[in-house]
Design goal:
The structure is a homodimer of 342-residue chains. Chain A is built from ten helices and 17 strands. Chain A has 342 residues and is of the alpha/beta class. Chain A folds into two domains: 4-175, 3-Layer(aba) Sandwich (Peroxisomal Thiolase, Chain A, domain 1); 182-336, Stage V sporulation protein AD (Peroxisomal Thiolase, Chain A, domain 1, 3-Layer(aba) Sandwich), CATH 3.40.47. In chain A, the strands form four sheets. Chain A has a seven-stranded mixed sheet. In chain A, α5 packs parallel to α6. The longest helix of chain A is centred in the middle third of the chain and has 20 residues, at 202-221. The radius of gyration of chain A is 18 Å and the shape is globular. Chain A starts with a strand and ends in an 8-residue tail after the last strand. At the A-B interface, α2, β6, α3 and α10 of A face α2, β6, α3 and α10 of B.
């Protein structure tokens, strides 16, 4: 078990390569600051279907297929698809992969899904069980509002702490061989619940989980935050980001210089009326697959830590007065093998 | 990638051992034919809580802890918990593991969850990423009826093709070292959807997925069904079992002698009014953890193939007129290393 480092971290012996990524988003994300980095901006939020749930499945299907094409592979070259979403019984994903005919591991980590998918996918490859896998995660604003809050038709007001679910999917092809960027280490989170009960303030619910996995990551590997050019959390938003920085300060880790939050990058909060920022499985997945992957490829950054964050509640648990458990997974990427200290 | 055999199968280089299992069930399962094999039969379907969802979480929590105790391990010895269930956003599982403090991979494969969990768990161990993991899957009749069909208070009639969701959890501790039984191979299913739309006939929806993964398993490994003493599907029930045997006959594989279905074992259909049989994530998980694991330990069987089966629909997809995609995963167990042909 020499690959297991400290409490919760693994270091890959033969770090899997990202061979290609794909990011497809909806119209609102196409008006945001990262628009130019997405492969496709759909002007049709229904993606040619007649329901929000079918739209998310179509989004998921198209993004996975596009990632495989961009990797110059056929679907048959992909040994496993690992993917997840937020909808009840994950039908965004299960109907998305329905016609792809590939072995499928459905994952549920709420908005931490792409972190979970890349961690398990990298383990599968480094363990010698596959040459290529696809990791993918999707969310859809309209399907999420219907599932978790109110049908859009009601025009319900949202508090300033609420976030805006990203309509988007990010898919990543990981391969046993290739020229990088590489997945080098992964710290898998435990569920953390400090008792936040407001499902319109998920940033506050998730910040402790992000802090917990970050502290474990730094401790397990004996590194400091400045090891990375960027540390990007998934969808904490403005409220959650402030809390995270406070929690990390208290723990003796300074994240003020290199921390970014995908939820604060994908929308322009001044112009786009998204309240606390973007959220959803697709937020960190599309931001990583679209923006950060290109930064790594171009050498604009050399080392980054992605920390997708998930709130593990449901409408039923909120109605029953339960607090909101959260989880976060940290996955490290390095541009070139020479940058590894292994 | 020498561990990958054929299209969809892996053979473990150092087969993980099952160190212990635990199975906890509800009152009705405690009146069924397998009652004596479960570690705990709760006489309280609420498991001391005040809602069906909380009951499932408590069931999940207790079963995972019991499995770790029976393995003579501490929770801190478990590197990962891999678990899933059927509820919206998997709150049966996420609230179940909330206080356990261990790195957690949430899985969604509907009732195939324990197959997915043991496959990924065995990959994690054989890949060198952990010494011990727990794989677990739960379901609860009352929570499932509320989620998928009607609140029990309505007394809604059920057609003869409907199944009865098992209230139960089966948890399995897999370890890098030990005296067996071993997880030797695993064939991971793709989503299969032949167009069945009746959510009261999930056996018919799932049988093609079970046949698909079984055929891949036999082809990939070049073996016949009689290689195994038992081939146990998860929860096809009476309707699905008949369809599976027909499909396998057509494909040239005779399963009539050694096929069992956990859904037909856990209840007595003559006396217990469960219609087509038992179903749910807990059906195959508790039947394997309670019954088959003891059979393997005692040498009553030496080789078995477990094929948990899952229907990947939701209430929303059914209401939108969609058919029911299904998936099944095959996981092989052998009692002693000398029985392996590796």
């Amino acid at each position: 078990m020499e690959k297991h480092i400290g409490e919760q971290t693994v270091r890959f012996a033969n770090p899997p390569t990202i061979t290609a990524t794909a990011a497809i988003v909806g119209p609102k994300e196409g008006e945001g600051p990262l628009a130019q980095y997405f492969d496709v901006v759909s002007q049709d939020a229904l993606f040619g279907t007649d329901s929000w749930e079918k739209a998310e499945s179509e989004l998921s299907r198209q993004t996975i297929i596009l990632a495989v094409q961009k990797a110059n592979l056929q679907l048959g070259d992909i040994q496993y698809i690992l993917a997840g979403d937020l909808l009840n019984q994950e039908t965004g994903t299960t109907f998305g992969v329905r016609d792809l005919g590939r072995p499928f591991f459905g994952l549920f980590g709420a908005c931490s899904a792409i972190g979970e998918a890349m961690t398990l996918g990298a383990m599968i490859i480094d363990g010698g069980f596959a040459n290529n896998i696809v990791a993918s995660a999707s969310s859809h604003f309209c399907a999420a509002e219907k599932t978790f809050r109110f049908p859009l038709e009601l025009g319900t007001q949202r508090p300033p702490t609420a976030s805006w679910t990203v309509t988007g999917d990010g898919a990543v092809v990981l391969s046993a061989q290739g020229a990088g960027p590489y997945v080098t280490t992964a710290t898998t989170g435990a569920v953390v619940d400090l008792g936040v009960k407001d499902s319109n303030n998920m940033g506050a619910a998730m910040a402790p989980a992000a802090a917990d996995v970050l502290i474990k990551h730094f401790q397990d590997l004996g590194i400091q935050p400045d090891y990375y050019d960027v540390i990007a959390t998934g969808d904490l938003g403005a409220v959650g980001r402030d809390l995270l920085l406070q929690l990390m300060d208290k723990a003796g880790y300074n994240l003020h210089h290199n921390h970014k939050d995908c939820g604060l990058m994908i929308f322009d909060r001044e112009k786009q009326d998204v309240h606390a920022g973007g959220s959803g499985c697709g937020c960190s997945a599309a931001t990583f697959a679209g923006y950060f992957y290109r930064q790594l490829l171009r050498g604009e950054i050399n080392k980054m830590l992605l920390v997708p964050t998930g709130a593990l509640h449901s409408v039923v648990t909120v109605q029953q007065g339960e607090s909101i458990p959260a989880i976060a997974h940290a996955v490290a990427f390095e541009r070139a093998m020479s940058h590894n200290e292994r």
